[in-house]
Write a structure and sequence with these properties.
This protein is an all-alpha fold. It has one domain (3-75): H-NOX domain, CATH 3.90.1520.10. Helix content is 68%, strand content 0%. The chain has helices spanning 3-17, 19-29, 44-58, 62-75. Helix 1 (3-17) packs across helix 2 (19-29), helix 1 packs parallel to helix 3 and helix 2 (19-29) packs across helix 3. The two termini are 15 Å apart. The model has no long low-confidence stretch (mean pLDDT 94).
Length: 81
């Protein structure tokens, strides 16, 4: 997965739910790091693990979380991912 996608997920979770929730999501996902670089590529499994961990931690469906993330991205055009 392109790092920009992962970085966008990171910014969304951190900005909306807080840095501690983001750290917990990364730990739950078992990815071994808490920062994504926008210009790198990552294993698709890491992206799916983060999305599933975030949904579980937040008590949301992955699809609902992605919809919220889409709203976040289009309402914050000034945000650097």
């Amino acid at each position: 997965m392109h790092g920009l996608v992962n970085r966008s997920i990171q910014c969304f979770i951190r900005d909306v739910y807080g840095a501690e929730v983001w750290r917990q999501v990364c730990a739950d996902a078992g990815i071994g790091h808490a920062d994504f670089e926008a210009m790198l590529h990552y294993d698709d499994a890491d992206t799916l693990a983060v999305l599933r961990a975030a949904a579980a931690r937040l008590g949301r469906e992955v699809e609902a979380l992605l919809e919220d993330m889409g709203h976040y991205l289009v309402t914050r055009p000034e945000r650097d991912a």
